[in-house]
Each structure stands twice: as C-alpha cells, then as structure tokens.
Amino acid sequence: MSSFIAASGAAGPPALPTAGREMTGLLAELLPEVATCEVYADPPGIALFPAEQQMIASAVEKRRREFTTVRHCARTALRELGIAPVPILPGERGAPGWPPGVVGSMTHCAGFRGCAVALAGHVRTIGVDAEPAAPLPDGVLEAIALPEEHVTIKALGPGVPADRILFSAKESVYKAWFPLTRRFLQFHEARIELDPNGVFTATLLADPPLPVTEFQGRWRYRSGLVVTGIVVPA
C-alpha cells in the first residue's frame, strides 16, 4: 500500500500567509487531540525552503501547488506545538521528514490540503487521508477489498461513498503503520470494519505479524470530501 493512488538560524520562507480559506474543519473534528490545519484552496505567496524547492524543481504545476500548500498546512500545525518553521522533506517511500520529537501525517486531494501533527511523547503515530467523495474507478474496489469488506461497506447504507471511505481508511492505516514498522503494507494486509457512527477498526494481517496488530480510526463524509484519520496514543 502506498499513499497509492527547531532549526533556529535555518534559511527559510517568510511568515505564512493567512489567505486561502484556512479554517478549523474536518481534521480538527476528526482528530481533536492533535494539532491540525487544512485549507480548501492554494493560498498565494507561500514560500518554500531551498531544499524543498529543489525537491519539486522539475515537477508539474499541480504537484508544485499540492507540495507547497500541504507544507504550509504542516508548518501552521507545527506552530501550534510551538515549533518554528523547518523544511519538511519527503523521506523513505515519500513519508514526511518531521522535526525530531514530532509525529504527523499530510494529505491532499482536489479541493483539500491538510496535516495533523503531535509531539512524540504524547502520540506514537498519526495517519490521515482525504479523498473526493466519488465512487472509486472501475476495478479499484475489487483490487483493494477483502471479501469481508464488501459486507462492511454495505452496512453504511445508501448515499454514502462507502467504497471511497474504505479506500481512504486503508490509506490512513498505511500512513500510521509505516513510521512504526518501516515496512510496506499491501491493501489486503489491512482488514477494515466500518461503523456507521463514523469510526472504523483496522486489523493488520501482515506476515510475519508485528507488534502492531490493530488501529482504531475515524471517518467523516461532508461537502464532497471523505476524510479518515488514526491517532495512536503513546
């Protein structure tokens, strides 16, 4: 599975802009125990650290906007923890490189960029994912879902993009799993049980088994978006 489909004296970007419909929203509702930031458009005037600029020097414009804005979200959330702006570079398998003593997760899709962070002394790991609330493309559900999961998505009832919620939950599972294990996780190595009350349980089926065997997560569906999240306390 992939996200599939205080450095004082460091040179860096200017003060963060306040434009861009930045607000308390889905992530704050979903994960109130951690610091979050989300925006629904790409604010103008966001600057990157030189090392970040190098990472996307050859990227297409869409990727540059996503990369830039989600780091704006990350630095805004880190500021809630009292942490000064630092470069956030992609590391192994694209996982964000957080400052020492911080755990977090970032996500972006059309119309949404967001981040959740916490101090490592309080939280072991975080995984968040946002998706458009639209049906999965043909063939994707069959590729990612276990037989039991076809049953659980039906339990959410009509009018709910249950297949997309399942996909997003698996993405959040991977984002929470990888920092703990440094191991790849296939879609079929996480069994998701969705609850209509906006929570889910993820059972890890990786072989050989590891100490991490289960995650408890939450999901929301609103305003054309699906957002899922996992926070594992320390």
Automatic annotation (TrEMBL):
Pfam families: 4PPT_N, ACPS. GO terms for molecular function: holo-[acyl-carrier-protein] synthase activity; magnesium ion binding. Mg(2+) binds at residues 129-131. InterPro entries: 4-PPantetheinyl_Trfase_dom, 4-PPantetheinyl_Trfase_dom_sf, 4PPT_N, Enbac_synth_compD-like. The keyword Transferase applies. Residues 51-118 form the 4'-phosphopantetheinyl transferase N-terminal domain. Keywords: Magnesium, Metal-binding, Transferase. Coiled coil: none annotated. The keyword Transferase applies. CoA binds at residues 63, 71, 107-108, 129, 171, 175, 185. GO terms for cellular component: enterobactin synthetase complex; plasma membrane. Residues 126-209 form the 4'-phosphopantetheinyl transferase domain. Its cofactor is Mg(2+). One of its GO terms (biological process) is enterobactin biosynthetic process. This is 4'-phosphopantetheinyl transferase. It comes from Actinoplanes cyaneus.
